[in-house]
Design a protein that fits this description.
The chain has 350 residues and is an alpha+beta fold. The protein is 25% helix and 29% strand. The chain has helices at 12-20, 50-56, 88-91, 93-103, 165-169, 172-178, 210-216, 222-227, 253-256, 305-318, 331-344, and strands at residues 2-6, 25-29, 59-62, 79-80, 113-122, 127-140, 144-157, 182-191, 197-204, 237-244, 263-264, 274-276, 279-282, 285-288, 294-302. The strands form three sheets. The chain has an eight-stranded antiparallel β-sheet with strand order 9-8-5-6-7-10-15-12, sandwiched between helices. It has a four-stranded parallel β-sheet with strand order 2-1-3-4, sandwiched between helices. A three-stranded antiparallel β-sheet has the order 11-14-13, with no helix packed on it. The longest helix is centred in the last third of the chain and has 14 residues, at 305-318.
């Protein structure tokens, strides 16, 4: 059995896919505000049963940083993305910059250029998979509006390119000492002037929404990827757009009542490239659970960036949802522009 431990239920669509693949999976959600997500679709593990499920699990996947208190000592050596001794590098800017310098990554305030995320998957012994991604974080088309965790992403598997590879590999001794298994990524800005990457932040574990892009590129099942050492991803590009409804990004209880119970006229079994998140099922109908208004992440792949995003937008246009949809429409334009610049600078060339 594979147990997911989550703060906000972000991995619920992954758990759902793995169940469709036939895997025995369970999920515990730490934050009470997200307990309604996937009601009627997936039963969640209660806190009273968590110790029993930890003991039963063959693998335990953390999709975010969750402090389990005394239960941390029961996890043994079967975790993925468990960053117990590494979280300070994500949360403390001083420690984060110190680690960046140790890894050989330049630190410079206010670097201007292209935001790029390089990710390494570590199987406990060696790095086995590298990816790059170009995120768009602002809510609105044209990089306007609030800066969010993610709005659209373009991701590809790294073949032969060297940017930030040795810097990530330099972390292997520390990861080994910590007993860490999973994803490690560094967000940098490739400076327009000197074409060098400058540090923004670390992440130990899944980055959202790029994890859904990576899973869409797999040669194996999602279950196989998580249980067989993180290998075997296809060439090409995976592209995503986050699909939301009002009042997102505003999260007051009063406003969220506008999103709760909005109907998604679809069969969840036919969601395909739509990684549904803030949803539930009532009377065989899929509805918004009203946790935050993020209905899900639409993902598609292609040999070219415009092919991936083209299929994403075609799929979004086919959605029949009883509320106005919010999503960026410039994913292909922005990703192509940034990717072309990187190639012109002879950076990240596959």
């Amino acid at each position: 059995m594979i147990l997911f431990i989550s703060k906000f239920g972000a991995s619920l669509p992954i758990v759902y896919r793995m169940r469709r693949e036939g895997a025995e999976t369970e999920i515990y959600i730490h934050n009470d505000l997200y307990q309604n997500n996937y009601n009627g679709i997936i039963d969640k593990v209660r806190i009273s049963d968590l110790k029993k499920m930890i003991d039963k699990a063959d693998k335990i996947v953390f999709d975010s940083n969750v402090d389990l208190g005394s239960l941390q000592d029961c996890l043994e050596n079967k975790t993925i993305n468990q960053r117990r001794g590494l979280h300070n590098y994500e949360s403390d800017p001083v420690e984060a910059k110190k680690l960046a310098k140790q890894a050989g990554i330049k630190v410079k305030k206010g670097a201007k250029g292209i935001q790029l995320v390089a990710e390494m998957w570590f199987n406990g012994k060696e790095p086995v998979l590298f990816t790059y991604s170009l995120p768009n974080q602002c809510l609105l088309t044209g990089d306007l509006g609030q800066k969010m965790a993610s709005q659209s992403v373009c991701l590809w598997v790294k073949h032969g390119a060297e940017l930030l590879k040795k810097e990530l590999e330099s972390l292997v001794p520390m990861l080994t000492d910590q007993g860490y298994v999973g994803a490690v990524s560094v967000d940098c800005t490739v400076n327009s002037k000197d074409k060098k990457p400058y540090f923004n932040n670390w992440r130990f574990g899944f980055r959202y929404d790029s994890i859904f892009c990576l899973l869409a590129l797999l040669k194996v099942s999602v279950t196989g990827f998580l249980t067989e050492g993180f290998t075997k991803a296809n060439d090409g590009f995976a592209c995503s757009e986050r699909v939301t409804i009002p009042p997102y990004p505003y999260a007051s209880k009063e406003l969220l009542s506008l999103a709760e119970n909005v109907k998604l006229n679809m069969d969840i079994k036919d969601s395909n490239g739509f990684w549904l998140q803030d949803v539930k099922s009532e009377n065989n109908e899929v509805r918004c659970a009203g946790s935050d208004g993020v209905l899900g992440v639409m993902v598609s792949t292609g040999r070219k960036i415009e092919d991936g995003f083209g299929d994403v937008y075609k799929s979004i246009r086919k959605l029949n949802i009883d509320a106005p949809l919010q999503f960026r429409i410039d994913g292909a334009k922005e990703a192509n522009k940034k990717y072309k610049k990187l190639n012109d600078w002879n950076i990240c060339v596959n």
